[in-house]
Amino acid sequence: MMIKGTTKILGVVGYPIVHSLSPVMHNAAIEHLGADYVYVPFSVKPEDLADALRGFEAIDVQGFSVTIPHKQAIMPLLTEITAEAKLSGAVNAVSRTENGWKGTNYDSFGFMAPLKEMKEDWKNIAPVILGNGGAARSVLVGCQSLGCREVHVFGRNPQKLADFADSWKNTPVHDVLRVHVWDELGGMISGTRLVVNATPMGMYPRGGELPVTEDVIGGIQPGTVVYDLIYSPRPTLFLTKARERGAVIVDGLEMLVQQGAKALTIWLGRDVPVDIMRDACLKQSKPAG
Ligand code: NAP
């Protein structure tokens, strides 16, 4: 890739940012297309986010991805926020427009992509989501969009869980949402066909951790889709154990690739090579063990 005087800047803003696969993934596609762009990691502390945005404007950044811990904090700093991002309560991609910065969220899109490839009738499935943080919100929106009539979200902190439930009032998600404290999980796991880990339990460098007990895993029925949003390591210990129970497993890499490809399509205004982006991530991702 040749950076010239004409090269336009894209990037990702997060803190820390060193483990992000996004620069490798986006630059692989940019290089393949011969597009005159570069995608840069921006390490920005929470207290510096507003300054960073002013800087991005000054240096003519065209668009950027948003990751932990800025996905919610960035919202009041933007000129426009799409309906998807408002519903999820978080922004993961920002584009430059004539009026300023437009924030959106492609995490639900990315989450749903591998599920849409499966021959399941999602309307008749009542998914179980582990965790009630930012990613769980996108998963919930995704499940509702897939047509699930009931979605069960499990959290360990009753107050946060109640606030989570409240935050969906007056949205279509509220009708399908059922919240539960963690202890109720054992009784429900065997009755579902889709389990999603939206907690960081098992993520590198703590790959020996599980989001649920071995007993709960023992309740997973063969053929259940078990989806872990974590993509490092891949597969996680949770997915390995679920596969031993006969589950169909999905890791978080495809979600990452699909949301990234969607954002890059918008920034470049053309189709992007998803296979090249996926291969670039696969080469960089950490194997299990
Ligand atoms: P987050 O906002 O911090 O939420 C994490 C959730 O996990 C919270 O509900 C938290 O509970 C819960 N949790 C944490 N430790 C727990 C434990 N020991 N037992 C039970 N629950 C626990 O994080 P996030 O942004 O949602 O990210 C969650 C995971 O999704 C991360 O691993 C992230 O890498 C992954 N992710 C992947 C993609 C992708 O593209 N594949 C995209 C987004 C996120 P409390 O609220 O009680 O603390």
Would you give an account of this structure?
The chain is globular, with a radius of gyration of 19 Å. Helix 1 packs across helix 11. The chain has helices at about 20-35, 50-60, 85-90, 105-115, 135-145, 160-165, 185-190, 215-220, 235-245, 255-270, 275-285; strands at about 10-15, 35-45, 60-65, 80, 95, 100-105, 130, 150-155, 175-180, 195, 225-230, 250. The chain is an alpha/beta fold. Strands 2-1-3-5-6-4 form a six-stranded mixed sheet, with helices on both faces. A six-stranded parallel sheet has the order 9-8-7-10-11-12, with helices on both faces. It contains eleven helices and twelve strands. The structure holds NADP nicotinamide-adenine-dinucleotide phosphate. NADP nicotinamide-adenine-dinucleotide phosphate binds near residues 132, 136 and 256.
What is the mean pLDDT? 96
Number of strand segments: 12
Bound molecules: NADP nicotinamide-adenine-dinucleotide phosphate
Going by helix content, strand content and strand pairing, the class is alpha/beta
CATH fold node name of the largest domain = Rossmann fold
Radius of gyration: 19 Å
* Spatial strand order of the main sheet: 2-1-3-5-6-4
- Amount of beta strand: 15-25%
Specify the helix fraction band.
25-40%
From the coordinates shown, what is the CATH architecture of the largest domain? 3-Layer(aba) Sandwich
By CATH reckoning, the class of the largest domain would read Alpha Beta
CATH superfamily of the largest domain: NAD(P)-binding Rossmann-like Domain
N-to-C SSE string, H for helix and E for strand = EHEHEEHEEHEHEHEHEHEHEHH
Number of domains: 2
pLDDT < 50 stretches = none
Shape: globular
Largest sheet: 6 strands, mixed
* DSSP helical segment count: 11
Give the termini separation.
Answer: 34 Å
